[in-house]
């Protein structure tokens, strides 16, 4: 089945063509980051309008890159949530209009399931069951994954997401959005152990996370350095490294616990923060000690993209799942309420 995937949940317009037999054929992405930069964050109305402008040209682009035409499309998947409702509505409207015109099934996909399954697009994908660490701009979750749509929530952040903490730290250090890659680049020049930041919630049992205290600790460190007249490039790099090390250690400790608790030898990491090199290295070192393996997607499929939505949608469309007549747009949508891929879905 040739599936067109559409991602418009936030500030990235992503489109891809995935063939259930031949694999990923093409993908294209337009990021609105520059447009929102002047406002210091994503402006929902501007995001929706820009998805309207970019979506159809990107659809044409992935078709032409794959040497296909609209008439070849056999199913359409779009991000139905979680995300900004206006932005979601754009993807859902285009998906349903195209599906109606072409007479093909359409399905709304869960954005985090997309992230979760993105590593499946790589060579040597993980087998089920596995433990997944979802670390993105809006989520930090540990999930036991027994199959597609079989998700058992093991733990999650009680406040900020890991990506959000990176973005806020970036701001304190005078870096632009998205902060993750910029903090990571600055941390390369940091002096190890110049500062020691806390590893929140690692000294007690459980698999939940909290990153807001770490954010405050970072702010206090920044302010103390400023007051002392020491806030130079080296100190900024040292703070970046101390922050990144604290996040990596915290995530690694919880992942080890989750693997042991779930008696699992496979760890999948997904979402924007899973592109972080120090995190990948830390988890691989930990996993090696447990005789476990770590799986992740190429960096461009860690952050938002159309390929993950085309992939996740294809698995469900092939199994016969599809939307009814209505566009689905769910701004808040817990992933563990999804049906297993084999169960019929009702909207
Ligand atoms: P969600 O998927 O939860 O709705 P989102 O779609 O905004 O949120 P993603 O696109 O998955 O999130 O990821 C973006 C986040 O990933 C940002 O917070 C960004 O700073 C972070 N990020 C991207 N690359 C890196 C990196 N190399 N190191 C750390 N963080 C990173
Ligand atoms: Mg984004
Ligand atoms: Fe995302």
Automatic annotation (TrEMBL):
Protein name (Swiss-Prot/TrEMBL): tRNA N6-adenosine threonylcarbamoyltransferase
An annotated GO cellular component: cytoplasm
Binding site for substrate: 134-138, 167, 180, 276
Gene behind the chain: tsaD
A matching Pfam family: TsaD
Known cofactor(s): Fe(2+)
Signal peptide residue numbers: none
Keyword DNA damage: no
Xref: Gene3D superfamilies: 3.30.420.40
Subcellular location: Cytoplasm
Binding site for Fe cation: 111, 115, 304
Co-factor binding comment: Binds 1 Fe(2+) ion per subunit.
